[in-house]
Automatic annotation (TrEMBL):
Residues 5-164, 264-328 form the FAD-binding domain. This is FAD-dependent monooxygenase. It comes from the Bacteria. It comes from Actinomycetospora lemnae. The keyword Hydrolase does not apply. Keywords: Monooxygenase, Oxidoreductase.
Amino acid sequence: MGRAVVVGAGLGGLASAIALRRAGWEVTVLERRDPPASAGAGIALWPNALRALDALGVGDAARDAGTVEIGGGIRTASGRWLAHVDAADLRRRQGDGVVVLPRPDLFALLLAAAPPVRAGAGVTRVEPGDAATPAVVCDDAGGRHAAELVVAADGLRSAVRGGLCPEATVRDTGQTAFRLVADHALDAGGETWGRGDYVGLGPLPGGRTYAYAVAPSTEVPAGDDPLPWLRARFAGWHDPIPAVLDAAVGPVLVHPLADLTPPRAWHHGRVALLGDAAHAMTPNLGQGAAQAFLDAVALAQVATTDPASLAAYEARRRPAAEAVARRSRTAGTVAAWRSPLAVTVRNALTAALPAAASASALDRLLGTPPAPEEMVP
């Protein structure tokens, strides 16, 4: 193979660097932050994410670093169950359960397996190249990196995408997410829906809990520490939500939720968009990282030094990834409904959905487990 430059050393960028190196590419990774950011609370890896990590050679390490959820589902703020996830049945159908681990631990696993990262190298310009000319990536340290393939993995507000696809714009959802880790032992995870807000919990190793909460941005107060406000807002919700918030340790991460209007194309010359740069989605289905990992595996499988090969990557990944992004935005909208009538109807329909229908929908989201050799880059 030839030379590849990966722009961005987040989860998707590191995954693509690992996959491309395993496929024989000479890989350079550029990251504007120094050191590369490893902050985060927790992350839930569904079976499709674990299969992609298996193809990168780090799947078992991720499983070992996390906790497998033994159950979960959706509840109301009072604690009434609307739906259950049968963890044993999920493992039977998909070959894996849901593994929850600290996001910094997953980042560290990928960073250790990836080519060395050139930190503090922000990208200022990309010449996309063509069939006769290599691409050139220019960094703010004066470097010029020629390559037969450039992977734009620089996130939701991708500078590379902005120069090539200005029509792809960031869409605010009007919601803000809070993520934290608590010293609280949790047996099973799940999500709880209120009126305009919702909370999710997942078990972490070491008797800790990963928690997230989402509320309307207009109701989030200004200030450096949102924890007192979160504790007050969710004080009347079912156990163990108040106890988890009381046991929070470390900073609470605050992020306005947004996604992306689709770009016209995922590839331009020798440049391929990947992960959030191509299909940033809300976190409601837990699929942002998974879809980036699947992008990385697919790109390494089909990319060659001929830029025409990038059309096969887009054809393989774009329909599925953008369908997940649409479903995720819809799921977030429904979870955040606040009209009493809408909430009543939502809860009734969720509770009435047969378990077999829920399992079938989940399998469509996660895909059919392929044979191991089909996932190897």
